[in-house]
Amino acid sequence: xSLGRTPAAATxxxxxxxxxxxxxxxxxxxxxxxxxxxxxxxxxxxxxLVGSGEHYGAVLNPDFDPKAYLDTVARDGLNLxxxxxxxxxxxxxxxxxxxxxxxxxxxxxxxxxxxxxEPGAGDGGNKFALSRWNDAYFERLxxxxxxxxxxxxxxxxxxxxxxxxxxxxxxxxxxxNNVDGIGDVAKERANTLDNGNLLAAQERVVRKIVGSLRDxxxxxxxxxxxxxxxxxxxxxxxxxxxxxxxxxxxxxxxxRVDLAAxxxxxxxxxxxxxxxDEERTLGVGHLIAQNYCSHRYPIRDIDPHVGIMNFHxxxxxxxxxxxxxxxxISFDETGFANPMSKTSAPETDAVYRRQAWxxxxxxxxxxxxxxxxxxxxxxxxTFVNEAPGGGGPALRRQLRVLKEFLETFEIPALRPRQDxxxxxxxxxxxxxxxxxxxxxxxxGDGATKLTLDLAPGVWRFEWIDVKTGEAEASGTLRHAGGxxxxxSPTYDRDVALxxxxxx
Length: 503
Description:
single chain, alpha/beta, TIM Barrel, Immunoglobulin-like, 2 domains, six-stranded antiparallel sheet, 12 helices, elongated, disordered N terminus
């Protein structure tokens, strides 16, 4: 297929948007783009979200300086952060993460509920009173989202999470940690419809959060973080502990648990419905994301309320396998590629840089890096951490290069263009483009003689250093049509090409 042809599938995909609940969102509120549902529109502009953010505790950890953090994200040219609301947080030292922003100091967690006068909560503070809202929390939540909006940063608001090992013993929703007798269930039942009096409390806090953020145009909601993980732990699997040869089997097993667990899926559907019903009452609407699985999977059934498909530790196939569903596809969390490595190490940066390029070049619309260099006292993202992931100033600069590279294209017209790559000896190639422009990402080393199938015409090309954003080489190609070779400059690990029809 030549660049001059537009596949009928692209037209069919846009039609998927017509009947969905978010079709009437404000022109300013974050929403799928009307011309291409794989991408977003935000404040009247087509948008690809690229973030490298702290470990989700910016609001619930009162010792963290949110303005300094948001200033760093904006200065680094990124536009996304992810936020847990306080229904789940961690103890210091969980997962071996030093200075974890999601693990406030003992008794310091700021949640939607006030603490009572009764001591004995699992986090070292007083127990919570689920019948009373914490005004200080909601003021901080609203201020954080507002300050993010001033910087054109979108906030993914995560309502619930699986509880892992230490999460349920400190959760306010555990009956051991509140004075209301709510949540006297095992953690495996907490996020199901079979959870006793906990469901009413969950629905109540969802409605309160939705109401408090009703006027924000820069948010979307995720129902639950990693809904498979409680079941995964019960079977003896621990995230990050598997050998490389186990990854394929692990991915399939996790998908089987998540997608074949009707009690979990029914609860997620219920929470999504609560969000939609409350927003309908308020006269507003925001996108809802659902977290399906790690790595990749061709999702069979999608809740009609869901507009963003979230994957963790995603492979490019997570995007390509699901492009036909007409939703935005998100690489929602990175990690465990180089366990416990220094975040400033170039080796680690290279792993996550490649993940970002390959996923977004495969048609993904969101990339969310989990950046462990943000800690209390290092809201400028300069902490050299030991954690199961990466992050840091150098990698954030490289992610900005990717974001700005994609923004040189007409985003609503973008589509994966693997058909345009005939050969890339010695390199892995990912291509995306429009009728008049093509982007190619090469992962290899040395130099690559790239063979492309281009339409007739005059084409201008430029090779981009993906670490710095600087042009490595450029030129003009007068082409009669069909296969043509373009030699890359010598590169280390990866390089990108942008080639566009001259006008």
